[in-house]
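Structural prep section.
Before we set up the soaks we want a predicted structure of the protein with guanosine-5'-monophosphate in place, mainly to decide which crystallisation condition to try first. Input record follows.
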Amino acid sequence: MISEDIKLDYDDVLIVPGKSPIASRKQVELNVGIDFPARRAGFSGIPIMAANMDGVGTVEMADALRRHGIFTCLTKFHAPEQLAEYFSADPERRAFAAVTIGIGDEDWEKFTRTAELTGAHLTYVCLDVANGYTDRFVDCVRRFRDTFPDKVLIAGNVVTPEQTGCLIAAGADLVKVGIGGGSVCETRVKTGVGYPQFSTVIECAHAAREAGGRIIADGGCTTPGDVAKALAAGADFVMLGGMFAGHLEGGGKIVDRYFRCDEVSESGELVIDKRQFVEFYGMSSKTANEKHFGGLQNYRSSEGRRVLLPLKPDLNETIRDLLGGLRSACSYVGAGNLRQLPERARFVRCGNTHNRVFEELALQETGAIRI
Ligand code: 5GP
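Run finished without errors. Recording the tokens verbatim:
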């Protein structure tokens, strides 16, 4: 069976500007309030999340992003004692960070210990698997909800309205949507499975509202404009991996590389330029499996890639660019805040979103050659 409707990615659409009472971007409010009454909790901040990936979901990143009102899902690889110390040391932290767990028996035991140690200092938990369609996963969401009724539960990943509704019915507060669209993800190449992300967001956001829950648009945003499109399409939060990767706060391995430039020094020698890169990889990649699970099991393929990203020295600069873009998007459609953005935004389907003529040149910097 083939669905003949065309489904879209962020790259297939643009937001149409409309009459706007917003005189300046400064007037745009990016903080939102999201209530989880059943958990007696509420989020107040900017609805962007750092992904629970190595190189992104660290406590250092969480502390840096929290200062801007941005949330972080910590990786699965923090020990219960470390998490207890982190959350107990500063009660503010529980409002901007989630503990992430998988669905294995050892994950359950580890989380039970974490919950004992953190107690009321922990609010958000992210139950994260690559494939949120298994009965085992839905059972785990239900078991979590029955055992920990006061925690805000993030669960995923899925890409269809039916499974979004199913996870909410099982007890998830926020469903993470997106399969195969991530920057270091190879699921679509290795399995042929996925769903265009922009359409996923629209369809799952609608289903979540009907079921009384919310969604996180996870993966595939490569620019601040994509984040604006996700929020305008109805995402309650947007989760970013690659856009937050490459910073020191992510704790990734730093690699020095030397390049020969087309430049000669005063003493007549070719200038050698040292550049720093940060390792970043998908959490289903061979690299991640070797690091955390003693290698790839022989029944699995690697569904993620490893890349070296140029070190971005200033996280604040990245955040300024991101939030500046969001404010501007809101002002183009006359939205004074993010709640108004989906109400006011209209989209146009397009074949080409922007002019790429000098894009390569800007990326090449000096045109140096690696030695
Ligand atoms: P990004 O913002 O980098 O485009 O996407 C981040 C998301 O990619 C993560 O939150 C997660 O859902 C997904 N992801 C991370 N690692 C892998 C991987 O190795 N394989 C797949 N299929 N998805 C991944």
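Observations: DSSP finds twelve helices and 15 strands in the chain.
Flagged for discussion at group meeting.
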